[in-house]
């Protein structure tokens, strides 16, 4: 059982002047078994929240806290957070030359499992093949350098391949649907849905309601100007499709 709690979180980007905060008091609690979605317009701080939870040092926590099962993780490295079961599918996954996809994933899987429980090579390769097939990814994707020359859609599928292999306790999926055609979207959603269990939580970030037809969230949050301004059930995503974010903010201010 894992509970991630974000408490009154204020975050600035490192290069910012003293007063410019991107996150301005975010509160969020996600428990094992739950799927949460965050929707919101561009530039509102969704990726900032994801990166901050994962421990990217470019994001400076000014105040507030992030806890895992009650323990603050603010001074934990990215590696420590990953070993504790956190996973981030980045909006813009970087390419890394010189490391193959399979090598990268195996290192991540072993890091998560710990020194006493390294995955046997044959089992790793079987698991990798099975998940490549599940995601309808060509087998040679495993032998290519990580994300090097991958198309937008291939990068997104590759993030889900990592998810299926690493089996985190809590996954943040940042715009995993951007640039996917409908077939790829279905495949990606099926991959995520196959992870759903009482021992798995996820936070799905998207602009569009469409993804949430395939991965039905338990809770939907709307983020605007660095805060969560509304939370509700899946129907909130559907109503946003009609009203849009602008109208919601007007209603909120009025
Ligand atoms: P979203 O994911 O909701 O589109 P972001 O978190 O990417 O929003 O960005 C929120 C704001 O923070 C934007 O104004 C963006 O320009 C700024 N920002 C985010 N990351 C950085 C960064 N590394 N350097 C400078 N500005 C950043
Ligand atoms: Mg964006
Ligand atoms: Mg973003």
UniProtKB/TrEMBL annotation:
Domain of life per record: Bacteria
SMART domains cross-referenced by the UniProt entry: AAA
Organism whose genome encodes this protein: Lacticaseibacillus thailandensis DSM 22698 = JCM 13996
PANTHER family in the cross-refs: ABC TRANSPORTER I FAMILY MEMBER 6, CHLOROPLASTIC
InterPro entries: AAA+_ATPase, ABC_transporter-like_ATP-bd, ABC_transporter-like_CS, FeS-cluster_ATPase_SufC, P-loop_NTPase
GO molecular function: ATP binding; ATP hydrolysis activity
NCBIfam families, alphabetized: sufC
UniProt family annotation: Belongs to the ABC transporter superfamily. Ycf16 family.
SUPFAM superfamilies: P-loop containing nucleoside triphosphate hydrolases
Domain ABC transporter: 4-250
Protein name as catalogued: Fe-S cluster assembly ABC-type transport system, ATPase component
Keyword entries, A-Z: ATP-binding, Nucleotide-binding
Lineage: Bacteria, Bacillati, Bacillota, Bacilli, Lactobacillales
